[in-house]
# Entry
Amino acid sequence: MNWIKSVTLVCSLWAGGALAQIPNNSPYDYVNRLTPFRWEDSSHYGFFRRSTTSNNSESVLTNVKTGRAYIKQVGVPLAKAISISKNGDVHINARDGKQEIVLRGMQNTTLSPDSTHLAYTKDGNLFLYNIERRENKQLTSDGASSIYNGWSSWIYNEEILGRGMNYRAFWWSPDSRKIAFMHFDDTEVPIHYMAQDTGQHVNQIAIRYPLPGDKNPEVKVGIYSLEADKIKWADYNSKEDQYFGQPIWTPESDELYVQWLNRGQDSLIISAIDPLTGDKRSIYTETQKTWIALDQEDKIQFLSQRKQFLLLSDRTGYMHVYLYDRDGNLIRPLTQGDWNVKSIDMIQEKDGLMYITGNRENSTRDDLYKVELKNGNIQRLTFGDYTHKTNLSPDGKYFITNYSNYNTPERAAVLDNKGKIIRELADSKGKDYDRLVGKASYSEVQRFRTSDGFDLPARISFPANLDKNRKHGLMVLIYGGPNAGTVRDGFQGGFGDPMADTVNMIRVQIDHRGSGHFGKVGQNYMHRNLGDWEVKDYAFVVEEIKKKYPFIDPQYVGIRGFSYGGYITIMAMLKAPETFKSGVAGGSVTDWRFYDSAYTERFMDTPRENPEGYFTSSTLNYASNLQGKLLLNQGTMDDNVHMRNTIRLVDALQEARKQFELMLYPGAAHGWFYLHNKAAHFREMEAEFTEKYMKP
# Structure
C-alpha cells in the first residue's frame, strides 16, 4: 500500500463506513495503522485525509444515527487574534485600528479563560498583560537566580507538577479574575554542576538539585486578584518541610483547593483557601503507612451543580473514586474492588453519571465504564477480551473505541452509552494477513504465579518463521519503576514487515508486583526496598519461561532498560547473574543517594531514616558479583540522572577488576534519541552487542 492508496473506503460513504489507513513500508499488506477517528460534534464523527480535489485536507464525517457520510473540505485556518509560538513569542493581530504587536521573551504565556489577559513569567517574576489596553504589569518583584514566581523549581517540574507543565506554576481562575501561583525559594537547595564542553573553555551549568535528605525549596502559594491588585498568601509556613500539589479552583472561583503533603510523603491534607484572605479550612486528610503520590492527574474534579467533588485515592490498596461534599464529608465511594480506576473521562451531572476508564476485567486491559453518582452502580460499556482506547462524544451519548488484543489486530467501532454497538468502523487487517499470520512474528500475553500469589503478566514476542528445533536467545525489555507497568494486552507489530523479524531471539516484557497491576497493595512491597522485588520477580518469570520454552538457550538471556530500567538491568546482572547473562543499561541510577529527594524519599525515606535500605538498593555494593557482559550508556549533560551515577559504578567495577563496556554521549541529556547521529550510533552499537552476546 502506498500513500496514494492510503484511503480505503471499507464500504460506501452512504453506508457510513469510511476508513483511512496509514501505509507501512512493508512489501506485504499485513496490518495497517488506523487514522484516528474524532468527534466533530455530538452527532458526527470522522477523520481527516488528504483532499482528492485540492491541496487542502478534507474531513470524512458520518452521522452517528443514520450512518450517512459526507465530505467536508478543510481549508487554511483563519488567523487567530492571538497566537503563541513555540519560542514563547506572542503575536496579537491588528484589529480595531490597532497595529499588530509581537511580545518577546515571555515564558509559559497563558491566556485567561475570557481571553482578555495574558499571564506569563520572565526572570523569576509573574506578569500580566491586558490585551485590550495593551498594558503590561509586573505582579511580583523578588524574582532572582534562585527565587521564582509562577516558574517551577526543578524538583517540582520533574516530580510533582510534571514535565507537561514545562515549568509553569500558575493557574487562572475560571472567572479570569484571579491567578494562583507558587513561589519557590531555591537559595538553600544544593547545586549540581554539569560540564558543558563545546568550546575552548568548559562551561559549568548549575542546577538546584536536592538529593535525599537535602534541603528542599521553600514554597508558598499566592493568589493575585485583578480587581484588588493584591497578592494574598495562603496560610502556610513556607519554612516547613513540605510539598504542594497542583492547586484546583472551584468552578465558582470562590475557593482554591490546595494539596499539602509532609516531607515524609505519607500524610496528605487538602484545604480550601479563601482567595480574599488566604485563610484555609481542612477538607480532606489521608495517611498511609508507605507513601501517597502527589502527582496523580485530575485527583480532584468538581461537580458544580451539586457543590460536591470527586476524589481519586488508592488508600484501600487500589485507585478508586470517592464522592465528597464541599465540607469534606464522604457521601459514598463510587467504585471499589481489587482493580484500578485509570481516569475519570466525563461527568454528566444532569444525568447523574460518571464515565471512567479502568481495568476491572483484566489488569493488562482498559475498559470504559458508566457509574451512577447516586449509588455507585457500575456498568461495563466496552466488550470482549480486548483492551479499549475510547473517545466519548461531547454529550456522552456515544463513544468510539479502538480495540485489540495480542492476537487480534486493531479494530474501531462506535457504541452508544448503553454499550450497544452502533456500527463497526474499521479493521486494520490487510489483505495478506490471513495468508501470513501463521508465519509472521507474533506475541502472547501470559501470567506466571509466584509462590505468594501474584499472577505476574508477561508479553512474549516471537520472530517470524520461528524454528523450535534450534536454540534462541531471550531479551528482557523492562522499565520497572513503581506503578509503571508496560505489559499491555493489545496488538503489536505488523506495521513494518512482519516477515523481516527473523532474529534468533525471543523478546519479553515483564511486570513485577509493584508495577501497578496489583494496585497499591503490590507497590507497597517496594517501600524502603527498591531493586529487590523487581529483580526477584523478573528472575522468577524468566526461569518459568525457560522451562516452558526449551528452545531458549539459558546462556543467552539478556536484559535491557533505560533510566529506572537501567538501574534494574544493572541490579539484575549483579543480583541474579545465574539468570541474566548480558545487559544494556542507559541513564541509570546506580545509588539512590544520588537521585532527587522527592522521588527517592517517596519510596525510600531519607538515608538517615533508612540506612539499610539505601545500602541494599545500591548497585555499588554488588559490583564484585558481575559475571556476564554489561554495556553502560550515559549522556554527559543529563540533568535528571546525573552522570556521576555511571561514573561511580564504573569506579566500583574497576576496583572489583570486572570487565564491562561503556559509552558516553557528549551533550546528551536524559536520553540521546533526539540527537540523530548519536541515536544511530547507539542503535548500531547495541545491535553489535546483541549479536555478539545475546544470540546463540
Notes: The chain has a mean pLDDT of 92. Residues 439-693 form a domain with the Rossmann fold fold (CATH 3.40.50.1820). The chain has nine helices and 46 strands. Residues 574 and 626 are 5 Å apart (CA to CA).
